[in-house]
Amino acid sequence: MDAHNFIYGQWVPAVDGQTAKSINPGNLNDTVGTYQDSTEADVEQAVQAAQEAAKPWRKLSGAERGAFLYKTADIMEERLDEIAKTAAREMGKTLAETKGETLRGIAILRYYAGEGLRKNGDVIPASDAKALMYTTRVPLGVVAVITPWNFPIAIPLWKTAPAIIYGNTVVLKPASETAVTCAKVVACFEAAGLPPGVLNFITGSGAKVGQSLVEHHRVNAITFTGSNTTGKKIGQTALARGAKYQLEMGGKNPVIVAADANIEQAVDATLSGAFKSTGQKCTATSRAFVDRAVYSTFKKLLLEKTKEIVVGDSLDAKTWMGPLASQNQLANCLAYIEKGLSEKATLLTGGHAIDQEKGSFIEPTIFECRDHHSSIAQEEIFGPVLALFEVDGIEEALRLANDVPYGLSASIFTKDIANMLAFIEDMDAGLIRVNAESAGVELQAPFGGMKQSSSHSREQGEAAKEFFTATKTIFVKA
Ligand code: NAD
Q: How many Cβ atoms from other residues are within 10 Å of residue 192's Cβ?
């Protein structure tokens, strides 16, 4: 597919005609499609289109706006296989994973469609008995949605759907690695008859297209998910010009396994948290702190199960773990494995690229670590690399688990209520998971991190309304 930009309801090439290729990371000979390598001129057109559509769109009722989202969900359901297959080819997750993600996208659309009929403010008692005081939520105007490649369907939707239902118009800029998949998602909105300009889609490099969107004076809010380096830049620019912003960034998520844990359950969750999506989830498990009393049992079972993992083509039903999303990701992961070795961590399993001439495949990798301040224990790797630590009890586990700059998600395995309560109270993470893997997101609940993982607002569920609207307090006297 040749993905064009989508501006004011039309698929158009970039103004200066440049395109780039999207390549299957698991088969470097397979070109998934092309996308537009846009420039500032395209950004200008997309923002103008969103600006033009803003007034009529906000005048519709929530129910009228919601009808478009319900229709988009139905169309996406009809196109599920095609979208899931494109995502698996374009970023390397297995087909089962991309089907799950597409279904999640559909559920997100229906959830926010319903928001059009839900409560939109509060009545507050005024001191004057003859006055009426209440709040209402109003749209912000043009919103920029800037997304990463690791959830190319769900993340654009969990930002775009609430932005639209609350009456904003959107310019969506996806990661270049998954531009073709995202174009297919946008095409569902088009087929649902969304009015021109409500959702605009523009592809190209972050430094050019992303940055000029963030700097644009008519963009009133920016919602971003991606790396900390990019997030910090966006935050500074948005703050300087008074735009509202929301940043969801990296993680270094721990699992704690207490002496009384169900070991099989803890092993399965650690394995899935660390290696599903080839470790490329912001909520992926990247550190495990295991009590000395069960350490060797846990380690033995974890290694046995890790060695059974089938790495292969994302479209092959036998594959459990697909390739990394790009050659850059592979190079980055291998560099961290080298650092781990040079920092004297013990490589327990994995550590090598597989079929490198074919694509960016890598073995699931586990290091046994002692130095908690080493790079592989502190920095986000964003690949299937787990750092395993033996600890003396829950207190030490919690102290080490908290000793990183990130605070996105964290999980504990224990049957002891005192352990659970200590973890819930003392773990610095936005997502706290007890007897469940660190990766796992419910669309109706607030999502986001603490410390450097987030700008501290929350996405999804009711929290989305907070970001995508402004509150007006109204006082009316007879
Ligand atoms: P990235 O920061 O490189 O890119 C994210 C998006 O920002 C892309 O669309 C990119 O083109 C754009 N961009 C790049 N430079 C820009 C700039 N100067 N101005 C504006 N936009 C710019 O991140 P990535 O590699 O695509 O994604 C991986 C990262 O995303 C990881 O750190 C991961 O933890 C994080 N992530 C976080 C969450 C979360 O919800 N916390 C979820 C998924 C991924």
A: 18
Nearest-Å Rg of the Cα atoms of the chain is: 23
The residue among 279, 290, 261 whose CA lies nearest residue 436 is 261
| Nearest in space to 414 (alpha carbons), one of 253, 266, 254, 264 | 266
Q: How far is the CA of 228 from the centre of ligand 1 (A)?
A: 8
Taken in order 297, 300, 303, 307, the sign of the CA dihedral is negative
Query: Residue 305 is which amino acid?
Result: K
pLDDT digits (tens, 9 = 90+) for 367-422: 999 999 999 999 999 999 999 999 999 999 999 999 999 999 999 999 999 999 99
CA of 133 relative to ligand 1 center, distance in Å: 42
Q: How far apart are CA 387 and CA 284, in angstroms?
A: 12
d(CA 458, CA 137): 17
Q: d(Cα 137, Cα 197) in Å, to the nearest integer?
A: 22
**Alpha carbons 75 and 77: distance in angstroms, whole number:** 5
What is the phi/psi pair of residue 449, to 5°?
A: -115, 175
| Residues with Cβ within 8 Å of residue 263, at least 6 apart in sequence | 257, 294, 297, 298, 301
Q: Looking up tokens 């995502």, which residue turns up?
A: 87
The letter for the amino acid at 235 is G
To test the pocket of ligand 1, the residue of 171, 230, 246, 283 to mutate (highest count of ligand atoms within 8 Å of its CB) is: 230
Closest C-alpha to 189, from 213, 169, 206: 169
Ligand 1 pocket at CB < 6 A: 146-151, 173-175, 206-207, 210-211, 214, 225-227, 230, 233-234, 248-251, 282, 380, 382, 408, 449, 453
Strands 31-36 and 19-23: antiparallel
pLDDT digits (tens, 9 = 90+) for 413-462: 999 999 999 999 999 999 999 999 999 889 999 999 999 999 999 999 99
Q: First-to-last CA distance in the chain?
A: 61
Q: Give pTM, 2 decimals.
A: 0.98
